[in-house]
Amino acid sequence: MEIEVLQEISNIGVGHAATALSQLLHRRVDMSIPYVELVNYDKIGERLVGSQENVVSSVLVDTYSMDDADKMLNFLLLFDEASAKNILKILKTGSPPEDLSELDEVSSSIIEETGNILLLHTISKINEFSGTKWFPSPPQHSIDMVGAIIDEIISRDERAQNQFLLVECDVFTDEERLKGLILIIPNEEALKLIMAKLYGEDFMDMMG
Amino acid sequence: MATYTARIGDIVVGKAPDKLEALALGSCVAIALYDPQNKIGSLSHVLLPKSSDFKEVDKIGKYADTAVPEAIKLTTSKGANRTRLKAKIAGGAKMFEMTGINRLTVDVGSRNVDAVKKHLKENDIPIVANDTGKNYGRTVSFDLETSVFTIRQGAKKITKHI
């Protein structure tokens, strides 16, 4: 039940984000229907990009509930190396960098803001649809091994979860392929809140 | 020769010429515990500092406080001499800032490193080398033959031996 609801929310959120990305890139942007899955923390790196050690570009936006700061949703957007380079190719003059670990400030900022726009649109649609008030923190950008990034995010919340909600979706333009993944990592409190908003408190009582 | 990989919460044990590795450590810490004389050792992949913060402890290797004594037990039962045990540690990075209110001010990476150091000290095991903190992920490999801990920094492709 929870998965289906979240799939529907993600679909709306991500669809909206595609429109925003299309405006930013001046390209027709298509996105596949997001696929939502609960994934165990130790499998997540391999599930995402084949190996824990693959280098990815990540943008993290933490959001807190306006009503209760204990409730937290982390939104993490991952692009593989080729996609991050493609974004730079579209938005920035000059040839894209050989190596993502040596990005200049402008390139780094372009990747961070692209991620931020996508995530903020997703967040605002989730708020609109489920009547929640998630308030985003400024975006943070890191290029590193996918395993290391996930590892830090799961452990920074003291109540480290064993499972994450993975929203996977392919993004493509007419010319370039962009492979993007959004991970929504709710803490337990946050997940309860979303369910209560969608189904009402009665439903939550029924579910125990 | 075999290579054993410690996933999050695992403690792997081996004997030369085996190698022990842990992939893509972020804020996690890898503890190589070894007897240099008879070349037996273990590698633990620790995620969090304290097991007592949790109601249920699913894997004792996941927390610094429970992983250290367990690693000592496993390494000595494989034949290592308790009094000769030494440690090399790596990991505990911080790639993202903690944001918002109600957040702990000290990042989990440093707390992991502090906890690992504390528990090794309590067990009288000297830390002979360490590469911890900073803002990048690491992949580590421990060679039981030479006691060399090789640390690769993923994104920048830099390799260190400690």
Q: What labels would you give this structure?
A:
heterodimer; A: 208 residues; alpha+beta; 28% strand; B: 162 residues; five-stranded mixed beta sheet; 10 strands; globular
Mean pLDDT of chain A comes to: 77
Low-confidence stretches of chain A: none
Provide the low-confidence segments of chain B as ranges.
none
- Sheet with most strands of chain A: 8 strands, antiparallel
The proportion of strand residues of chain B reads: 35-45%
Shape of chain B: globular
Count helical runs of chain B.
2
- What is the gyration radius of chain B calculated from CA atoms? 15 Å
Mean pLDDT of chain B: 90
Helix content estimate of chain B: 10-25%
Q: How do the strands of the widest beta sheet of chain B line up side by side?
A: 1-3-8-9-10
Question: Total strand count of chain B, please?
Answer: 10
Largest sheet of chain B: 5 strands, mixed
Enumerate how many helices of chain A there are, as a single number. 6
> From N to C, what is the helix and strand string of chain A?
HEEHEEHHEEHEEH
Q: What percent strand of chain A?
A: 25-35%
Describe this structure in words.
The complex is a heterodimer of chains A (208) and B (162). In chain A, strands 1, 2, 3, 4, 5, 6, 7 and 8 form an 8-stranded antiparallel beta sheet that branches. Chain A is built from 6 helices and 8 strands. Chain A has 208 residues and is α+β, with helices and mostly antiparallel strands. In chain A, 47% of the residues lie in helices and 28% in strands. In chain A, helix 1 (2-25) packs across helix 4 (105-130) and helix 3 (81-91) crosses helix 4 (105-130). In chain A, a hairpin with a 6-residue loop joins strand 3 and strand 4 (72-80). The two termini of chain A are 14 Å apart. Chain A is globular. Chain B is of the alpha+beta class and 162 residues long. Chain B is built from 2 helices and 10 strands; from the N terminus they run E-E-E-E-E-H-E-H-E-E-E-E. Chain B has a 5-stranded mixed beta sheet with strand order 1-3-8-9-10, with no helix packed on it. Chain B has a 5-stranded mixed beta sheet with strand order 2-5-4-6-7, with helices on one face. In chain B, a hairpin with a 4-residue loop joins strand 8 and strand 9 (148-153). In chain B, helix 1 (64-77) packs across helix 2. The two termini of chain B are 21 Å apart. Classes of the chains: A alpha+beta (208), B alpha+beta (162). Chains A and B meet through strand 3, strand 6 and helix 5 of A and strand 3 and helix 2 of B.
